[in-house]
């Protein structure tokens, strides 16, 4: 079975496991998917990215994290498959020759090189032969091209060999991640041609919807174009013309579908889980991401709490005695219930039996 067929099979199995809410099976299938190296072509043809992408908003936190990790791995695979790869490091023959001594015993020390001619001739007489010239043993080890050492004469060959080997190789290749994030998708980068409708405004709106649906998506370009055309046509049919209502609805769809924090909405529209009439009749609040909806609910609760009117200030006292239980544990507050020149009305509540009374 080819990789395409196996990945497509695993994607359908994940979708079936998600429908039956079998989180254990979902984890097992996603683990199998991690063994495949993803490319842009594989993700588009198998449409497995749509299936796994929807799981990033799964109610189970472990499934959501696993889906995010898998999508992140696929992005790195796509970057690696299309990124800049380093060139192999060339070897320098000249430098290797320069760092190799001509003979094991030809290792002159610094004092001998700095010495006079008489000392070298004495060494030659002692061995019974003609001494080798100093340049024959020293010059190859201090080649200016092979070694970065600035000293005119090296003390030992081993000190020149290490930096020479370092300079004979090219710098290490940059990792594939340096190639940058994937390119932004639109009708131009994907090479998609929008069929003209005769109205430039409508054609431009279709292109905008395509770019919104393609944001961080690995879906096939033909599928995204089909959805964008259908959405624009439905909105135009509801409005009848490119009036203010038409443009306002297109703008709302473009902003909500194009949000990077709302991948679930894009993938649901691309996969057909949300139909064209449904997405076109949804409000901005309905199209918002789950994170945005949670923040809105929290904001509404906070505003409701802050909007509550302040009640009258009450104080505890023992100056009053309850006529029912004879207790002196009471709370009271005062309020101006009559005209301004009249005294305030005092309201008293017994904390023991909840008996209430008032007096002026």
UniProtKB/TrEMBL annotation:
Residues 318-358 form the TFIIS-type domain. GO terms for biological process: regulation of mRNA 3'-end processing; transcription antitermination; transcription elongation by RNA polymerase I; transcription elongation by RNA polymerase II. CDD domains: TFIIS_I (cd00183), Zn-ribbon_TFIIS (cd13749). Pfam families: Med26, TFIIS_M, Zn_ribbon_TFIIS. Belongs to the TFS-II family. It is found in: Nucleus. This is Transcription elongation factor. Keywords: DNA-binding, Metal-binding, Nucleus, Transcription, Transcription regulation, Zinc, Zinc-finger. One of its GO terms (cellular component) is nucleus. It comes from the Eukaryota. Residues 5-81 form the TFIIS N-terminal domain. Residues 115-125 have a biased composition (Polar residues). InterPro entries: TF_IIS-typ, TFIIS/CRSP70_N_sub, TFIIS/LEDGF_dom_sf, TFIIS_cen_dom, TFIIS_cen_dom_sf, TFIIS_N, TFSII, Znf_TFIIS. GO terms for molecular function: RNA polymerase II complex recruiting activity; RNA polymerase II transcription regulatory region sequence-specific DNA binding; zinc ion binding. It comes from Dimargaris cristalligena. The keyword Nucleus applies. NCBIfam families: TFSII. Necessary for efficient RNA polymerase II transcription elongation past template-encoded arresting sites. Residues 81-200 are annotated as: Disordered. Residues 201-315 form the TFIIS central domain.
């Amino acid at each position: 079975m080819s990789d395409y067929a196996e990945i497509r099979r695993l994607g359908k199995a994940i979708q079936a496991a998600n429908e039956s809410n079998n989180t254990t099976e979902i984890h097992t299938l996603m683990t199998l998917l991690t063994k495949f190296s993803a490319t842009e072509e594989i993700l588009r043809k198998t449409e497995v990215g749509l299936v796994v992408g929807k799981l990033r908003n799964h109610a189970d936190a472990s499934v959501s994290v696993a889906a995010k990790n898998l999508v992140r791995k696929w992005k790195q695979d796509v970057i690696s498959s299309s990124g800049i790869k380093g060139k192999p490091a060339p070897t320098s023959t000249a430098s290797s020759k320069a760092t190799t001594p001509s003979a094991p015993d030809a290792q002159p020390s610094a004092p001998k090189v700095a010495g006079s001619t008489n000392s070298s001739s004495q060494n030659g007489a002692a061995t019974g032969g003609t001494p080798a010239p100093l340049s024959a043993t020293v010059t190859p080890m201090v080649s200016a091209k092979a070694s970065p050492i600035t000293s005119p004469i090296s003390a030992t060959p081993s000190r020149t060999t290490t930096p020479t080997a370092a300079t004979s190789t090219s710098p290490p290749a940059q990792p594939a991640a340096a190639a940058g994030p994937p390119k932004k998708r639109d009708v131009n980068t994907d090479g998609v041609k929008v069929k003209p409708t005769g109205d430039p405004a409508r054609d431009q709106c279709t292109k905008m919807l395509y770019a919104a649906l393609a944001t961080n998506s690995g879906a096939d370009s033909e599928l995204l174009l089909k959805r964008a055309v259908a959405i624009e046509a439905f909105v135009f049919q509801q409005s009848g013309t490119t009036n203010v209502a038409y443009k306002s609805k297109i703008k709302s769809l473009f902003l909500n579908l194009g949000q990077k924090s709302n991948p679930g909405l894009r993938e649901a529209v691309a996969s057909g889980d949300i139909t064209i009439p449904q997405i076109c009749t949804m409000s901005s609040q309905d199209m918002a991401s789950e994170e945005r909806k949670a923040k809105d609910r929290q904001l509404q609760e906070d505003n409701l709490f802050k909007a509550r009117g302040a009640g009258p200030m009450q104080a505890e006292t023992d100056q009053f005695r309850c006529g029912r239980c004879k207790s002196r544990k009471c709370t009271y507050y005062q309020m101006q219930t009559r005209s301004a020149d009249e005294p305030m009305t005092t309201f008293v509540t017994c904390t023991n039996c909840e008996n209430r009374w008032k007096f002026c």
